[in-house]
Amino acid sequence: MEMELVSVICDRYAAVQQKIAEAAHKVGRDPADVKTLVVTKRQPLAVVQATIDAGIAFLGENYPEEAVKKKQSIGNKNKVEWHMIGHIQSRKASLVTENFDLLHSLDSLKLARRLDRFCAETGRKLPVFLQFNVGGEASKSGWDAANKSEWDVFLPDVADILELQHLDVRGLMTMPPFFDEAELARPYFAQLRELRDYFAVLHPQVKWEQLSMGTSGDFYIAVEEGATIVRLGQIILGPRS
What's the rounded Cα separation, in Å, for the pair 115 and 76? Predict the structure, then answer.
């Protein structure tokens, strides 16, 4: 049963890579510039282990406690890069700095300062992406970047974060509004790319290389618009329990 699951995951992953390659080639990009982060949130440990056995070691989780339990159960024999992609409450900042290789969802100056403090205590530098709410949805986390004329509102926060010595800002992340038709998400992905370019002019000392955007229903559109990391779960692992 386990080997069958590994085979299914391998086949699904390969199909996704083919679609990413097609999207990248369509706009003149190198498919190698796009990484697939496999999201294992709410998947049982057996599925996570099968994912690793399938040769995938680039995993994303939404909930710190759930991820830490999986990480401890799997152990260090499996070399896995763990990414936190969900909203983080400030009181859980230490879990992130102690257990994750990268944070996609840095969404406030308050959280940034706490992360920086915990990193300073352990002597590490945490790679992070800044999360922006390009759709202006109240249900989504991140700085509100829906209106370009108001981008200057969050510039002081970004400048302060870039001064923190133990955070390494590498790019931006977003979750656009959900649409049944993936094409409708395109303007939101394009807006995040424009915001990244805006920051690159204002803060050229930072390598604004990464754009974490695109999920199972719209990742190929995200790739066409410049995504460097797509976050895919059920399209590779099947329904969550």
Answer: 24
